[in-house]
Amino acid sequence: MNSEHCVSVHPRRAEDLADAAAALIEVHSTDGYPVEGVADPEAWLSPPQLLKAWVAELEGRVVGHVAISRPDGEEAVRIWTDRAHVPDSQVAVLARLFVVREARGNDVGRWLMAAATASAQMDGLRLVLDVMVKDTAAIRLYERLGWKRIGMAKHAYGDGQSTEAICFVSPEPGEKLVTEAPHGSE
Ligand SMILES: CC(C)(COP(=O)(O)OP(=O)(O)OC[C@H]1O[C@@H](n2cnc3c(N)ncnc32)[C@H](O)[C@@H]1OP(=O)(O)O)[C@@H](O)C(=O)NCCC(=O)NCCS
Predict the structure, then answer these.
(1) What is the pLDDT of residue 154?
(2) Which secondary-structure segment (H or E) carries 148?
(3) What is the best residue among 5, 27, 98 to mutate for testing ligand 1's pocket, by most ligand atoms within 8 Å of CB?
(4) Sign of torsion, CA 47 15 32 1?
(5) What is the pLDDT of residues 91-146, one digit of tens each?
(6) Between 159 and 141, whose confidence is greater?
């Protein structure tokens, strides 16, 4: 698969939820994401604080997903609001980002991130997220898109387990990014 395949990203509709849940189960089996498991994938994709979600389709199949939610006690939110002296109401949390393995390396993740960040900017919200240290492809994606590390957090899950996570904030709106040349432009 390569970038000539047509990727489309659109707001998640009710009828996309089952397909997104199937994609999540696939990602859990290949990558162990999310660490808390996929016992009820549709519920995990629809947390109570959910603001918006998007799916990516490649050749008509849902292959990826991202969401933004209102703050719900996340360490990344606390770090950013303390540092920037802004209220929680000006922040949203980007989460539930995944792309099935077969579709990776086609900028699907990048387009999902673009949809979420554009929407947050329109709503005057700065995005934060946390990513587990083990999820190195995601960390590379965030850094390539100009997200900045703001601290560390513990991601608690399961029966008292926890793992190290890195907290990021999205680029400042209007910030000029110095990134690599787009793929295929060399
Ligand atoms: C993180 C994740 C969403 C990235 O999805 P993706 O669709 O592969 O993302 P992109 O294609 O935009 O970029 C990823 C890689 O593909 C490369 N790439 C993108 N388009 C490319 C192209 N046309 N040709 C070649 N390589 C390309 C990028 O350089 C990047 O490479 P690198 O990670 O080795 O630096 C995916 O790896 C994933 O679902 N991981 C498991 C779940 C997870 O960790 N989620 C994050 C939780 S916080």
Answers:
(1) 93
(2) strand 148-157
(3) 98
(4) negative
(5) 999 999 999 999 999 999 999 999 999 999 999 999 999 999 999 999 999 999 99
(6) 141
Q: Residue 87 Cα, ligand 1 centroid: separation in angstroms? A: 32
Q: Which residues line ligand 1 (CB under 6 A)?
A: 3, 27, 31, 33, 97-99, 104-110, 131, 135, 137-138, 140-141, 183-184
Alpha helices in 45-101 (DSSP H): 75-84
**So what's the pLDDT on residue 156?**
84
Using alpha carbons, select from 127, 125, 161, 164 the residue that is nearest to residue 145.
Answer: 127
Residue nearest to atom 48 of ligand 1 (CA): 131
Domain ranges of the chain: 7-169
Residue 1, pLDDT > 90, answer no
User: Residue written as tokens 């979600």?
Assistant: 53
In this structure, CATH architecture of domain 7-169: 3-Layer(aba) Sandwich (3.40)
Q: How far is the CA of 140 from the centre of ligand 1 (A)?
A: 8
Residue 66 CA, ligand 1 centroid: distance in Å = 13
Tell me how far apart the alpha carbons of residues 132 and 137 are, in angstroms, rounded to a whole number.
Answer: 11
pLDDT digits (tens, 9 = 90+) for 28-79: 999 999 999 999 999 999 999 999 999 999 999 999 999 999 999 999 999 9
User: 38 C-alpha to center of ligand 1: Å?
Assistant: 21
